[in-house]
Description:
Number of strands: 10
Order of helices and strands: EHEEEHEEHHHEEEEHHHHHH
Strand content: 5-15%
CATH superfamily of the largest domain: Aminoglycoside phosphotransferase (APH), C-terminal lobe
Number of domains: 2
Low-confidence stretches: 1-6
Largest sheet: 6 strands, antiparallel
Distance between the termini: 33 Å
Helix content: 25-40%
Amino acid sequence: MSGEEYAGTMPVSDAQRFDEAALERFCTAHVAAFTPPLAVRQFRGGQSNPTFLLSDGAGAQYVMRKQPQGPLLPSAHAVDREFRVISALHPTGFPVPRPLAFGADRAVIGTLFYIMGYAAGRNFWDATLPGLTPAERAAIYDEMNQVMVRLHRLDFAAAGLGDYGKLGNYFARQIARWGKQYRASETERIEAMEQLLAWLPAHIPAEDETTLVHGDYRLDNMVFHPSEPRVLAVVDWELSTLGHPLADFSYHVMAWRIPGGESRGLAGADLAALGIPSEAQYLATYCERTGRQGVAPEVWEFCMAYNLFRIACIRQGILKRVVEGTAASRHARAAGAQARPTAELAWRQVQERLGG
């Protein structure tokens, strides 16, 4: 399945329909310079929180993120947190969309939602960046690396996010949280998940630190300038919190461990020929920019296992929504089906690289 299948917009799906007239009234009242009438299309991506392109009568475009319809898992689909973090980051100059309005009244369209500016630029879905030259690929990867460094070096307290999450003990709390989410959305027993649920809490690194973390920092959650290797906006902040920067960065580096094809990863690709840095080179660049004296192999491999576990939990949640008929994306079934293979990949890497 090509990345183009996820790109662009489509008519609003039956499962995600809402009162567009009510949204038009909200925009008229709360979005500066909004001019009726409102036109709505749904972005094809967005497994968790459905995302929509809004156009007004004057040709201006906006983006709305909303919770999906139906019952929600506790703490999931936190569009209120997304709006808060982009509102805090936008004044700092960090590349996020411009926050415009938050819909706290569920009576408007049935769920919480928010509206932000539309960042027009390039979206990439395939980590090998087909169609670009090796030099262009190298520049894109360097930009992603330095933007994440900017995030992790940002003074989150000064930005008003000092209470955006708990300080310290991030891995233990996250493993417990995702474990509960997994149990709540479990549709069958996955032996590799049972192994990870036991292994991860027993191997948490002793060193601890706290930064603002995105939680889902990957290529397709960035909008790039139409012609320059420059990130205009990092999007999809649903999983952001205060946490361990290596958890965040290693999640981003999962692309190096995931095969190409449907998963759109880098494993098995000729990185040197493509102009894309190796996993080790990319990590070394991040460490140099953040002043870190490298990362011990056992710590790095724990982070990798933790993130594959987390991805498996997310995919299991998608599968549960497919079963319940509330999945937001038309690609949800394929994504959900990857829960078991992702967990098995995580446990296999633990066994191969750390001896289990």
